[in-house]
Amino acid sequence: MFGYIIINKGDMKFKEFDVYHSYYCGLCEALKKGYGLSGQLSLTYDMTFLTLLLTSLYEPETKEYTTKCAAHPFEKHPVKRNEFSDYAADMNVLFTYYKCMDDWQDDRNVMKLGYGQLLKKGYHKLYDRYGEKVYKIDRLMQKLSQAEQKQTTDIDYMAGLFGEIMGELMTPKKDEWAENLHKLGTYLGKYIYLLDAYEDIEEDLQKHRYNPLVQKYENPDFDEEVKSILTFMMAECCKEFEKLPIIENVEILRNILYSGVWYRYEAVRQKRETNKTEGQDINHA
Question: Dihedral angle at the C-alpha atoms of 133, 139, 140, 142, nearest 10 degrees?
Fold first, then answer.
């Protein structure tokens, strides 16, 4: 369920992209320092959004410097890093570990099992560092896994569990902004869970894997129904975002929430429509 919280680069100014990428590099540096190469391999744009969101809200002291790395070995590039780079790195590793274990249980993916084992030490460190937060996420992940094993078709319940997980990830502090951040994360998590199910529905049916949308798939209004639900989730997510007193980087964050998150949806929808058209052409032939 990675790769959904991204920018729409085509609608972003060059300067804004440079700022965004500097936080991406800061997250990469935090993963390297905290977890080594195995941590760097878990780097995602999703957690770059979290870094940028929390930085823009809390305005912490941020280190700015340039560096070279394996991905950019020939010239230095700008880096912005602060306490929320480290927090996002921790959450990135935590969620990647869960994803590896989930893939192992679902598909017996040996590669994911091996990668999960590399991250296991980091997972235990996070349990010691965050205690209650990791315990809550653990319990929610267990409930999600159990419900999937029971083939639960209650979409609201399943998306709600993942939404709660994202709500916890998005809330680093118990302060005046915690409720808004938790709600933002909850709706964003619901969106991600449902979009992931929407993207995988055909493959899951072919491989007899769990998918909460299986009963709705044969509905002739399936695509429109899913779009309606996703639109509602992102409308509520954006509503919570706009309540936050964010000025710095606000256009970058809006680019992601109002446009970037829809990139994968549009790609999936277009592919599905193309496949339907090709199928109809074959039938007519």
Answer: 140
Distances in Å between the Cα of 12 and the Cα atoms of 43, 201, 260, 267 are 22, 32, 10, 19
Q: How far apart are CA 240 and CA 189, in angstroms?
A: 13
Rounded CA separation 221/252 (Å): 34
Summarize pLDDT for 4-33 with one digit per residue, the tens. 999 999 999 999 999 999 999 999 999 999
Identify which of 246, 257, 256, 258 has the alpha carbon closest to the alpha carbon of residue 54: 246
Backbone angles phi, psi at 282, to 5 degrees: -65, -45
Say if residues 236 and 184 touch (Cβ distance below 8 Å).
no
- The Cα 255–Cα 47 span in angstroms is 15
Q: Record the pTM.
A: 0.92
Contact between 159 and 194 (Cβ < 8 Å) = yes
- Give the model confidence (pLDDT) of 94-131 as tens digits: 988 888 877 767 666 777 778 778 788 888 889 889 99
Where b means 16+ CB within 10 Å and e means fewer, 213-249 reads: beebeeeeeeeeebeebbeebbebbbebbeeeebeeb
Closest CA to 196 of 155, 164, 232: 155
Hey, what CATH topology would domain 9-259 get? Farnesyl Diphosphate Synthase (1.10.600)
> What percentage of residues in the chain have a pLDDT greater than 90?
70
Crossing angle of helices 250-258/14-40, nearest 10°? 70
Tokens of 90: 């921790």
